[in-house]
Amino acid sequence: MQPSKRPSRESLKGYSARFLEHHEPSDQQKGLPCPPIQREPGSDQQVFDLPAPAPEVLRTGSIYECIRKRKSHRAFKKEALTLEELSFLLWATQGVREASGAHVLRTVPSAGNRHPLDTWLAIFQVQGLEPGLYRYLPLGHRLVRERQVPELKASLIEACCDQRFAGESAVTFIWTAVPYRTEWRYGTRQHKAILEDAGHACQNLYLAAEAIGCGACAIGAYMQEPCDRLLDVDGIDEFTLYLAPVGRVE
Ligand SMILES: Cc1cc2nc3c(=O)[nH]c(=O)nc-3n(C[C@H](O)[C@H](O)[C@H](O)COP(=O)(O)O)c2cc1C
User: I want to staple 228 with a disulfide (CB 3.0 to 4.6 A). Which of 109, 193, 204, 235 is the partner?
Assistant: First the structure.
């Protein structure tokens, strides 16, 4: 193998004895404060309470059926999701399952319970919500309306390397990484944990979508800067990591 390929492979590996001997203490070990687990909305932003996640939205309660039928869907019916269905998908992918003070546990696992992902939504067809760009607030199970993006559908398709289904969904999930949440505990040696966390969230989305008669497709082929510009994130402390359009399927 070309030596130039080796450094990026290193980021996929676990701890080595050498690393443990020589590593710098993490910010947590230095006693620095824990970063917030959620970026709160601005006082001028519109916030929406979501209905509590409830099993009434399920078309099958069988985990066997959901796993057996799971596949990537790239064509969706032009049908709106209900707010209850969206609530269920958000809860399944990043929702809070238990909270006691600062100790907040989610429906998905995360290395060190750091939860470095934020969930943005490009909403095209959800009952009761204007189409536009939103962000999920897991604490309180709410949505915040983010900035207006002119031509959201066209911009998203273009940012996803012209994959049309990215903008032909009822809603497209866009996960960003906020790496410092994980770095605070592990330093920069465990970036792979952020990718592992994203895999868990997306797999839950696939399975939860199946359970409500919808389909999803992971998108890893996107253009970094156009996606980050669309969300207006800085590309350093927060950047696009993974996407998944969701819609009703036959
Ligand atoms: C990390 C990752 C990135 C992916 N990126 C894309 C993508 O950009 N476009 C696409 O059409 N499918 C994408 N997929 C879906 C795969 O193509 C799909 O999972 C694979 O072909 C197997 O099909 P199945 O999911 O139906 O089993 C991605 C899947 C993963 C896990």
Answer: 235
- Cα separation of 59 and 82, whole Å? 14
Provide the token pair at 22: 């020589």
Cα 183 to averaged position of ligand 1 atoms, centre (Å): 28
> What pTM was estimated for this model as a whole?
0.96
Q: Rounded to whole angstroms, how far apart are CA atoms 194 and 115?
A: 8
Running DSSP on this structure, what letter comes out for residue 214? E
Closest C-alpha among 178, 182, 184, 162 to residue 241: 178
Q: Identify whether the C-beta of residue 57 lies closer than 8 Å to the C-beta of residue 85.
A: yes
Q: What is the pLDDT of residue 134?
A: 98
Average pLDDT estimate for 66-90:
98
* Residue closest to 93 by CA, chosen among 197, 165, 3, 163: 197
Ligand 1, residues at Cβ distance < 6 Å: 71-72, 74, 163, 217-221
Would you say 46 and 124 are in contact if contact means Cβ atoms under 8 Å apart?
no
In testing the pocket of ligand 1, which one of 217, 224, 242, 249 has its CB within 8 Å of the most ligand atoms? Answer: 217
At residue 3 the predicted structure's pLDDT band, cuts being 50, 70 and 90, is: low
Q: Are 145 and 45 in contact (CB under 8 A)?
A: yes
CA-165 nearest atom, ligand 1 = 11
